[in-house]
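Recap slide: Adenine DNA glycosylase, sequence and predicted structure.
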Amino acid sequence: MLLAWYDRHHRELPWRTSPAMAAQGKRADPYHVWLSEVMLQQTTVQAVKPYFLKFLAAWPRVDDLAAAPVEDVMAAWAGLGYYARARNLKKCAEAVAREHGGVFPDTEEGLKQLPGIGDYTSAAVAAIAFNRQAAVMDGNVERVISRLFVIDAPLPGSKPAMKMKVAELTPADRPGDFAQAMMDLGATICTPKRPACALCPFNGVCLALAEDEPERFPVKAAKKAKPVRLGAAFVAVNTEGEILLRRRIDSGLLGGMTEVPTTAWTARLDGGTEVSHAPFAADWQAAGVIVHVFTHFELRLTVYRAQVPDRLQTGPDDGWWEPVTNLDAQALPTVMKKVIAQAIPSTHRPENRNRFSTGTMRNSKF
């Protein structure tokens, strides 16, 4: 029933092998499946597509990614968010190349031994790339399962019960296609709002539809208000048209990414917001405030800008001067692109909007 629907209505995605190709014995490339699944965590399909293609163009094989400079990988990832994924991506590629001869393990257990691969990713790669009977459950699948069986317990506590149902339904034959069919069903038919139940292959057995309340599921626990953190960011531009940048430490939020100097804000603590916290003396002018929403908190940065006469002496660990015209090649996370666009509006001209987007991260995998 579901697989027949998938054969006709599956999405064409650059990391996928079509059902027709799979029927001819062609399996999905484990490297492609793994790369796409890591990118798709907390990110939409449409946002991931160009990044996936960019990574494949730069690093066609996992060995190539393993050998790439970490700075290049972080720069290529910039704007995709959740930057621990990029750090773990590099570590995982290195482990596959070093410990497995560039070949991914073909079982859930073996895959989970790799850096950054947990229950979901190991199941997805095992099922889709290696035809293992693994229960794959992402947010889309949770929605389908919760509606199909009317699972009333709120998330995340209901996840084990949902996973059991997915395991029961996953067939020994075509488990990868089944997993992708469930994802596609949740993304295109069993949507959060106004699901197209009349087109669903499960509409004859869906308990939520029988009760005429599919949008009530999945049940979610009440959200806690996100804390607000404060800080300041300092954008220095010299007469050569260069901006002062520095690299964050490898650990923690935005670890290893590029930034303009900021005060020491964290997810738990505020940083200073006054000009007195500037990294060096200059004619700092207030340029407004930007707001960026992370998963667990909201950050408000007061932005200051200074025009400086030349390349101020900064220590080797403090930063470097980068041409403003070369910012797209830097590993700038979205929050820093917002800061720079606030301080230097010219970086947000229409031709630069993809580089300096002020949009917030999306939290669904559609």
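Strands lie at 228-238, 242-247, 258-259, 285-293, 298-308, 320-323.
Residues 133 and 175 are 5 Å apart (CA to CA).
(End of recap.)
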